[in-house]
Amino acid sequence: MRIPLRFLTTASTLWLCACPPQLSEPATKPAPDRSAPSRSAHPACYDEVFGGEVDAKTPEQLLEAGRYTALKGSLMIHNTQLVEVPPLACLREVEHLHIDLSPKLQSLIGLESITTVRANLNLGTTEVLPDLHGLGNITSVGNQLFISNNRRLKTLAGLGRLERVGSGLYVTYNDALEDLHGLNKLQHVKGMFNLSENPALKELVGLSSLQRIGGNFSITSNGALFSLRGITRLQYVGGDVYVHGCPRLPDCELLKLLKQLRKQRPELKFDFADTLADECTAELERLSKQTVPD
Questions:
Q1: How many Å apart are CA 65 and CA 19, to the nearest integer?
Q2: pTM for this one?
């Protein structure tokens, strides 16, 4: 039998293929690895890659997609009324993971089998999601990671095994986010890192393992931010540093960061504005204007 055509339709292509049996038929694949929690309660896995896009609106659609070990296309939980994600017990890898415009979504626990997102992970426009538990086995995101427009997201807890992000990490417009706990194992962002428009963000605790940012590092319009504590291991920024619109952040904090980063890149451009002036402001202004410090 074939999987329902809703799983084989992309924006431009209707995929027709001989696919594994549906849930109601006897399993013909080997039983899944019993070491994975709760997997035995689910049908056998399809030990193969599904090549289409899954735009899931119902738990049943997600469960069927979750019987594959990998999705070569996108898994989209987009514009749904789902409250939680059911267990996708077999799924290990996806090309793209998009979770957005789902105002009732409260839990991502069902995604806990996923370890790798090869391209983009987009989590945005949720109304009641409090944390990211369920994404805790993801170790890398190949391209961009967006965490944006999540009204009640207070913590990034749930990303505890993430070590690497590719071309960009964007944490923006999260009204309730207070710190960055959950990114404790993140070591390397190959592209830019943008922390912007998070009005409740107070400090950068949670970035204790971050050592390298390949592109620009932008900290802008975070009105409650008063400390850069948490990025003491950051050694290298390959682009420029921008700190704007953080009126509670003392210039002494910025001066410490500037000196820390220029040990590796003396030519680093450091641009700041609308921060809290203090006894370090004059030296910060002088050093930030130099191409190569004294």
A1: 12
A2: 0.83
The predicted-structure confidence for 240-277, as pLDDT tens digits, reads as follows: 999 999 999 999 999 999 999 999 999 999 999 999 99
CA atoms within 13 A on the CB side of 198: 28
For the chain, the distance separating the N- and C-terminal CA atoms, rounded to the nearest angstrom, is: 73
| Total length of the chain | 294
Mean pLDDT computed over every residue of the chain: 87
Dihedral of CA 112/215/130/185: which sign?
positive
For residue 221, tell me if it sits in a domain: yes
Are the beta carbons of 138 and 161 closer than 8 angstroms? yes
**Which residues constitute the domain of residue 205?**
161-287
Q: What are φ and ψ of residue 2, in 5° steps?
A: -110, 155
Residue 68 within any structural domain of the chain: no
Whether the per-residue pLDDT at 22 is higher than 50: the answer is: no
Q: Is 134 left (phi over 0), alpha (psi -120 to 50) or beta?
A: left
Check: CB of residue 133 under 8 Å from CB of residue 108: yes
Q: Is residue 231, in this structure, part of any structural domain at all? A: yes
> Is 101 part of any domain?
no
User: Considering its fold, how many domains does the chain have in total?
Assistant: 1
- C-alpha span between 130 and 105 (Å, rounded): 9
